[in-house]
Amino acid sequence: MNKLYVVGIGPGAYEDMTLKAIKTLESCDVIVGYTVYVDLVKEHFAEKEFLTTPMRKEVERCRLAFEQAQEGKVTAMICSGDAGVYGMSGLMLELGAEYPDVEVEIIPGVTAALSGGAVLGAPLMHDFAVISLSDLMTPWETIEKRLQAAAESDLAVCLYNPSSKKRADYLKKACEIMLKAKKPETVCGIVSQIGRKGEYMELYSLEELKDVQTDMFTTVFIGNSSTKEINGKMVTPRGYRIS
User: Fold this and answer.
1) Are strands 187-192 and 218-222 parallel, antiparallel or unpaired?
2) pLDDT class of 163 with cuts at 50, 70, 90
3) 215: closest CA among 195, 191, 198, 196?
């Protein structure tokens, strides 16, 4: 059968890609992706054919990848982080029913909750939830319910897509929901441009986080009731007895 891979490329830096992802892209004839993601890997796979589409052209991008595979070219659709966490793998598998002669294989990558968590320290050592604040495909009312449930159950929370030009106050709104169930002094952190030039991290209290300006390249971490700051790092204890 014709082969189509869906590859998570991690946070952006070549050294943060998994070995399996690198070997898969090396084996491909064509690499398809969102323009920004293609730019992150292009220099490392310069001999490949690259095809791109802009943001909000996800369906067209997926069909383009299937069409390349149907022509007998080994093809990869790349996604930042992990392809199965707010990535393209679900859509690719849905559309795959229309292309029975193309075999789809998912190659995992390192999602921002993990790569960003490593920059901050160990914020996700216990149970946690990952929630996107983008309401492009999920109603804000649903996002609110998920935030409230996560806060009330004392989960550590990782927020993707915390704000954008059109959603400048969404992180503030999320923090206000969290503050109904979490203490104002709850330890939180942000990481911007994970694994890329300009990487930046900072710790805040939940009350302070409410007024922090972020963007789509920022990942936000909100601790649980036991999360603490240790030597400038955000740590959520697992519960081991150390004394």
Assistant:
1) antiparallel
2) very high
3) 191
Distance CA 178, CA 221 (A): 12
- Flag whether pLDDT at 198 surpasses 80: yes
- As a whole number of angstroms, the distance between CA 121 and CA 21 comes to 25
User: Closest by alpha carbon to 162, among 209, 232, 230?
Assistant: 209
Take residue 56 and report the two structure tokens written for it: 């909000």
Quote the pTM value. Answer: 0.94
Per-residue pLDDT tens digits for 73-125 = 999 999 999 999 999 999 999 999 999 999 999 999 999 999 999 999 999 99
19 φ, ψ to 5°?
-60, -35
Contact of 31 with 49, CB cutoff 8 Å: yes
